[in-house]
Design a protein that fits this description.
InterPro entries: Pept_tRNA_hydro (IPR001328), Pept_tRNA_hydro_CS (IPR018171), Pept_tRNA_hydro_sf (IPR036416). The chain is α/β, with parallel strands linked by helices and about 190 residues long. The chain has helices spanning about 20-30, 70-80, 110-120, 140-145, 155-170, 175-185; strands at about 1-5, 40, 45-50, 55-60, 85-90, 100-105, 125-130.
Length: about 190
Amino acid sequence: MKMIIGLGNPGKQYEMTRHNVGFHVIDELAKQMDAPAMQLKFNGAYTIIHRPEGKVLLVKPLTYMNLSGECVAPLMDYYDIHPDEIVVIYDDLDLAPGKLRLRQKGSAGGHNGMKSLIAHLGTDTFNRIRIGVGRPTGGMKVSDYVLSSFSKEEQPLLDEMVKKSASACLDWLKSPFLDVMNHYNKA
């Protein structure tokens, strides 16, 4: 079984914010894979899809970003999923809007959702897809920026990155993450 986790915040007020790009990818994957309805358990929303490559668990932690590990770690324990069988999708301030980077390990880079995951999983070695949201300008606080919506100019870039991230996840179901990473990081 493989697990794909999209980070974000629950609630209508956060739905279209930069911090919720991970949720958007999970929604896109659920649509593309014709997933069953999400279940609410383990402080998250998740569904299981049966595919020729094996079972896939799509997860949206509902703990709010900063506590994402409180949802993911119990799900991994319950389904006996190893850290190398997950991919985490999240927003990244250090990448420009429209940029995508895949990694197999690394620090949280200041991202509180990743800090929570690393703390709860006890490792920083797990697959991840970073979606660029850029940095705030004009003195805007980072917290206000990540909880703001994309501009009309940025929206097409977001849509493209959501589809590209979903494609990378689907490719990972058939190929080693390193191969997928090398392919998508070239672009």
